[in-house]
Specification:
Two copies of one chain form a homodimer.
Chain A lengths: L16 H15 L11 E4 L4 E9 L5 E2 L2 E2 H14 L3 E13 L4 H17 L3 E10 L7 E11 L15 E4 L5 H11 L15 H10 L2 E6 L4 H13 L1 E6 L7 H10 L12 E5 L4 H9 L8 E9 L5 E4 L5 E3 L13
Parallel strand pairs in A: 5-6, 10-13
Antiparallel strand pairs in A: 2-7, 3-4, 5-7, 8-11, 8-12, 9-11, 10-12, 13-14
Helix pairs in contact in A: 1-3, 2-3, 5-8
Chain lengths: 338, 338
């Protein structure tokens, strides 16, 4: 017989007494706030304006815990970042849990605690949520989906359609840290201890950048890495993009791991880095804002947007002066990275 | 080798070329609209006011397709209903998919089509989303999480704290249809064809009720059924609740199925029914509004809120005049009902 005291059972998701116990014993002590505590069907939010951003992401990362973070921290920061790069101050998150029967409640508690701490550190509330359970074998421990609502920063208009030839491309720090940390941990590579996910909420830095002005477009370079984001920019704008290999900030341990395992760092997911396309004239000032902030100390201008062209290619100028096309990754390389 | 043309592969969730193909070939043709088509990190919404409701629900229903609906329809209607019962006009939904490798793309397409059609019928857009894939055996075909944003209806204040002794309790129609449909289908019971889920968006009816006035509190009676909602009202308000068995609207086929399988219809999930607590003086008018609407033709006043009491019990007056306590279900009975 399953010990009801230490493992998730199907009944924890049944909407009855055990669901209620789970919320009261595990969810509210870790995530509670005035809005969530009401346990309504919806959270009521009073925002300063009706100009909002709305986003969602599912999190299926494996393993659940890794150096620099865990699925809970990821679920808070990742969704906050999707709001921030759209030019919105993150205001509130929802939290939906799908849990496999048999998950130790201690693990659930550890994740909820991480969610609560990350939310608190980043000044955001989890205001509404849901918990479902599925039979053992029908999920892999726990999947989390967060959605977020943010208030758009007045006067800021970001978009792919704002990008112009000559704009500079900034990355806010070293590339590939999150993805290589997860992959190395999964493959049991010995240097894993040197690797650490960059999982972080970027809002404090992004807020400063938006106030400073000159930003045309931003995106956090998660799945698919910098390569996916730059290819999206190229294909959407119809403009070529050129980046320089010797400008790319990469931790040596990440580079070694990527080389050993045959990955291109440009394809690897980040969870605390953005790409910003900024106007030519504002690039140095934007870079300085980044470098003066703890979240952007290793920021760099890695390239620029070229002219409109039929091919709309992303090209990398290599360290020895060669050129190679940076393609959209196929996607097979890195399942369950976030 | 897996045929890339008809099944979900891990790479469909990798953020690269195949993810992009999936979105362009399957998601946008079924769900596309001006906002979603931008494929931004966040959707930008311009609402009339900053007074909003925000909610989320995960959907893990098994089987994926059933008489009266499917997981996609459920994911749209369920989250819209959570906004509606909070007194908010549903405005926009997010959609997060977690898909098991090997799922036939034809099934995914059928679900996306259902989501698109349901959204269109109910005048709501899916404005942002995410797709993740996990290995075969790490999920059960597909799990969906939707979140929703709604604009609060001006002048309407609903809440458990508005409920007063003497208030009447209305249910908007027959009870248990959704849950018994799912259970019977899972158990392969022969009368399943007579059962049909009530899965529906309740906003059109709720909007009329809110305009009419007199509503104190609403909830859609999903997991845990009417019993869970009424117990929540009793425990939150500290008031007794009395309902009458002979007033409960129940389809005969649902009652037969419940009796055969040993379920109490009061514990069974509904997906297109609300409970409304309305002021004594407005009860008959509210009931009439319901009965005149296609979504509420079988609505009934099933009981009333009693005095504050130490026990704060929900009691059922049976058809033969006895009384029994209606308890919060334990939760074990009905996994993966929604």
């Amino acid at each position: 017989m399953v010990d009801t005291n230490d493992k998730i059972m199907l009944a924890h998701g049944g909407g009855g007494q055990l669901s209620s116990d789970l919320i009261k014993k595990y969810v509210l002590p870790n995530l509670g706030n005035d809005t969530l505590n009401q346990l309504g069907d919806s959270a009521v939010l009073e925002l300063d304006s009706g100009s909002i951003c709305f986003t969602t992401d599912g999190y299926v990362v494996k393993p659940l815990f890794f150096n620099g973070g865990d699925i809970g921290k990821l679920a808070v920061c990742g969704t906050m970042n999707d709001l921030a790069v759209a030019g919105a101050r993150p205001v509130a998150l929802s939290l939906s849990l799908i849990i496999e029967t048999g998950l130790e409640l201690a693990i659930l508690e550890k994740i909820l605690k991480s969610i609560g701490e990350t939310a608190k550190q980043n000044n955001i509330d989890i205001v509404t949520g849901d918990t479902k359970t599925v039979e053992a074998g029908s999920a892999d421990k726990i999947f989390i989906t967060t959605a977020g609502v943010g208030e758009r920063v007045g006067g800021v208009e970001l978009g792919l359609n704002k990008i112009a030839s000559g704009d500079k491309i900034i990355v806010s720090g070293t590339l590939g840290d999150h993805g290589m940390t997860i992959i190395s941990k999964r493959k049991g590579i010995s240097f894993e201890s040197e690797l650490k996910s960059d999982c972080a909420s970027l809002w404090p830095l992004i807020e400063q950048l938006l106030v400073g002005g000159g930003v045309r477009f931003m995106r956090d370079a998660t799945r698919g890495g910098v390569a996916a984001t730059l290819n999206e920019i190229a294909s959407s704008t119809g403009m070529d993009i050129e980046i320089c290999e010797d400008k790319l900030p990469i931790n040596p341990a990440v580079q070694v791991a990527a080389d050993m395992l045959g990955f291109d760092v440009l394809n690897i997911a980040n969870e605390g880095k953005f790409i910003a396309v900024v106007s030519h004239g504002c690039a140095e000032r934007c870079l300085e804002i980044c470098k003066n902030h703890p979240l952007g100390q290793e920021a760099a201008i890695i390239g620029e947007v070229g002219e409109v062209s039929k091919s709309a290619l992303v090209e990398l100028v290599t360290k020895i002066g060669g050129r190679r096309v940076v393609q959209l990754p196929y996607g097979r390389e890195l399942p369950r990275i976030c």
